[in-house]
Amino acid sequence: KIELKKESALNLAVNYMTSAENKISPASFHYLSKALNEIIPFMDHELYAEYPMGSDQKVNLYSTIYIVAEKINDRFMLTCDRKEINTAIGVNKNHIINISCIDKVTKKPLENITLRAIMDQNNLTKYSITDENGNAQIHLFKITENIPVQYLQISIEHPEVISIFNLTNTESISIKVNV
């Protein structure tokens, strides 16, 4: 009976993993998390299954889920319409930074990607989320630090994913701000 439950969990995990890789999005990581949750009760057993489906290759699903998470994370790519911003300290001007997020492999836009902007460890925007075309905007209004050259760091924000899958790098871009 335990063997049947394990096989069912392995099949579900493989299906979740396949769904995660088929259409890259923030939901991909949730599918991988579900795959992990399916197999965790059977950690004392062998967790080998055919993956990718149809490959005739048996892999350890536990470690493969983490590998797939890293591969998906590496597919996110941010681009920006500005490399540099020139401004003055204390001047209230709205600098709009247009960001695009695409899948590096398919070159298709990625929607619902949460972005965070930080400059000198200060959050500038709580969040900005990409639209159906993979586009988002970050607004830089006023510089208060009297530092001649600063850098605005914009990165993909998914802390729950980082903690579950131990991801060390998320996609980010840096914009030079001349004050």
Beta-strand percentage range: 25-35%
Specify Rg, calculated over alpha carbons.
Answer: 20 Å
Low-pLDDT regions: none
Number of strands: 10
Helical residue percent band? 25-40%
Shape: elongated
Structural class: alpha+beta
How would you describe the overall organization of this protein?
The protein is an alpha+beta fold. Helices cover about 30% and strands about 30% of the residues. The chain is built from 4 helices and 10 strands; from the N terminus they run ααββαβββββββαβ. It has helices spanning about 1-20, 25-40, 60-75, 160-165, and strands at about 50, 60, 75-80, 85, 95-105, 115-120, 120-130, 135-140, 150-155, 170-179. It is elongated. The model has no long low-confidence stretch (mean pLDDT about 90).
Please specify the SSE layout and strand pairing.
Blueprint: H1 2-22, H2 26-39, E1 48-50, E2 58-60, H3 61-74, E3 76-80, E4 84-86, E5 95-103, E6 114-119, E7 122-129, E8 135-140, E9 149-156, H4 159-165, E10 172-178
Parallel strand pairs: 4-10
Antiparallel strand pairs: 1-2, 3-5, 5-8, 6-7, 6-9, 9-10
Helix pairs in contact: 1-2, 1-3, 2-3
Task: Provide a compact summary of the structure.
The chain has 179 residues and is of the alpha+beta class. Helices cover 31% and strands 32% of the residues. The radius of gyration is 20 Å and the shape is elongated.
Question: Which key terms come to mind for this protein?
Answer:
10 strands; three-stranded antiparallel sheet; 32% strand; five-stranded mixed sheet; 179 residues; 31% helix; alpha+beta
